[in-house]
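Lay summary. Proteins are chains of building blocks that fold into shapes, and those shapes determine what they do. In this project we predict the shape from the chain. Here is one chain we studied, written as its sequence of building blocks.
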Amino acid sequence: MADTAQRTVTADNLGAWLLKGNADHTDLRGRFAREPRVGRWCVQPSYRVRLMGAGQPVLFWGSGSRHRDVAYGIWGLGTLTGPARQEDDGSGWWVPLGLTIAPPDEWIRREVLRAHPELADLEVLRQPQAANPSFVTRRQFAVILAEFAPGSPSGRRGHARTVTVRPVRSRSGAARTP
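And here is the predicted shape, written in a compact code that computers can read:
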């Protein structure tokens, strides 16, 4: 477990969680074409899973490198519907979600994010191999919502919607900074 000084995510800087799925290993595009709603996703145990709670925004990141016809980047937006949980058999961790994958023509390509002056340093771009969950700062999330919302100057329609950014809370409900 990381020392507090080494922790990247705090109640003050969390804008949204970013959950990743590798399209090189699973046919995510096909899966989400059949069913764009995502009710749960795997996460790796760390101090971050203890910070995850209902109502916090979450972005879905489609990753990979093999399929040039797949637009890797931000594919969906939603919220956590509860805290991270461990499987009953102790085999792994997951988070409950209210998340919908957008149609492919609304995905925000990683090349677009890398070229954006305020988004080029997203954690997922700096550390693409890091485990789930990754995170987006408050400022980065505000930029994503502003830049890619319906009616924005960039013209991205339908991708972003109104999401309330809530402070990180402990399981007891008290606001805290890790």
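What the prediction tells us: Helices lie at 28-34, 47-51, 110-115, 123-126, 138-148.
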